[in-house]
Design brief:
CATH architecture of chain A: Alpha-Beta Complex
Pfam family, one (chains A, B): 2_5_RNA_ligase2
Oligomer: homodimer
Radius of gyration of chain A: 16 Å
Number of helices of chain A: 4
Strand content of chain A: 35-45%
Protein name (chains A, B): Putative phosphoesterase FPQ13_06725
Keywords (chains A, B): Hydrolase
Number of strands of chain A: 8
Enzyme class (chains A, B): hydrolase
Largest sheet of chain A: 4 strands, antiparallel
Low-confidence stretches of chain A: none
Shape of chain A: globular
Structural class of chain A: alpha+beta
EC number (chains A, B): 3.1.-.-
Number of domains of chain A: 1
CATH superfamily of chain A: Cyclic phosphodiesterase
Chain lengths: ~170, ~170
């Protein structure tokens, strides 16, 4: 059975996506592959049968999770591990729990790093470019609040872009 | 209450999206704004209250519609109205009915042209470019089949790209 590459993400409000895109269009070569998002589960491969099963599990997880608030106050970087700069989501128990549930037994894929909720705004820059951009952005402060009431399962096309497969609404 | 721009579309299988993208990346400047899709309802503006109401109507429409097959055999063009070249979806009663239901009384927005189900693969070329590309593509024949089992409500960001707001599964 043929396998596709899937990922799970939450899209913040249009306002936050527009702010993230104002940076991404300059500093992220993958900008056009997917709208600004919070990754809940890193990409994994699965066949249709597995996805049908996962989809039921994801509906259950969504139903048991109430919509929740997130807050963004500043920019941070994963340097020196990668040159990724991101809008940092303030520590959030619900996001962490969702990430844990989506990596529990029965879910395919593995998480390479500790879960740090974030919205990427810059990646794949050279070391010098990264230093320049991060030097400018890390002194910005933000006061962004949003309510997350859904997440989405997406699959990747051959050109690297992502299409939404299904939406899971929280608390319903 | 602030208004966003929304649209309703169905994404065909990854296979058909990959084929469409192989043309779009060369012939469609808007290629990266949204994955390849069949537009079911042209873009319209609405506030959150209207969307909450529409979403219930769309769930009902989806529930009453069984998954259905589509077929693609050839490329066509909207010339001379626009220079849009597309994968033509063979006449399909279910697609036409969905389009009608989404433009019935109570739904915002208006449809400028008769509904012609299609997947755009080229647009916004000059008249000469359009003639060249269409001359090459119109002699291609395809034998693509797919089953549509869901459609999606999307909203547009400031940069023109689209984010999925919700997925409606047919027959459920």
């Amino acid at each position: 059975m043929s396998q596709l590459t899937y990922g799970i993400a939450a899209f913040p409000s249009k306002k936050i996506q527009d702010i993230a895109n104002s940076y991404r269009m300059r500093y992220d070569p993958s900008y056009s592959k997917i709208p600004p998002h919070i990754t809940l589960k890193e990409s994994f491969t699965a066949d249709q049968q597995t996805i049908d099963r996962l989809s039921k599990d994801l509906s259950k997880i969504a139903k048991e999770t109430e919509p929740f608030d997130i807050e963004i106050k500043k920019v941070s970087s994963f340097s020196p591990i990668t040159h990724t700069i991101y809008l940092k989501i303030e520590p959030n128990d619900t996001l962490s729990k969702l990430n844990e549930q989506m990596n529990a037994e029965g879910f395919p894929g593995e998480q390479a790093f500790k879960f740090v909720p974030h919205i990427t705004i810059s990646q794949d820059l050279s070391e010098d470019e990264h230093s320049d951009v991060y030097g400018t952005l890390k002194i910005s402060s933000f006061d962004l609040k949003d309510t997350i009431d859904r997440f989405q399962l997406l699959y990747q096309l051959d050109d690297g872009s992502w299409t939404v497969y299904e939406t899971y609404k929280l608390g319903e």
